[in-house]
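Worked example

This section walks through a single chain of length 120. The input is the sequence exactly as stored; nothing has been trimmed or padded.
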Amino acid sequence: MNRIAVCHWGAITSLIGLIVLTLAWELGLAPLRPGGSLMALKSRLLLAPLFGVLRGRVYTYQWASMFILFFFAEGVMRAWSDTVLLSRVCAGIEIALCTLFFASAVYYARFARMAGIPVR
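Given that input, the structure is written out below as tokens.
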């Protein structure tokens, strides 16, 4: 597997993992309010870059690498401030998935540019 494909699949798996985590976290694992919360709607924001990432569009990778930092910041804040252990664990997983996505997206954009893949 070449490095562009590794970065592509790293971004796809981490983004889908982040969508699943945010839904599970806010609907069942450790929601802000018992029975689930409207914070689960934040997973819909992650659908915006998903289709461009699946198609390998370099432009989507470029803006999504900055977009994912909002979720990284949320993970850091909830890991720091939440008192429930399961919520802190979910926040740690969110931080790890955001870091993996960010690295994969940045390197995908770089390697794609070096390979001559056009930005669309």
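What to look for: The chain is about 80% helix and 0% strand.
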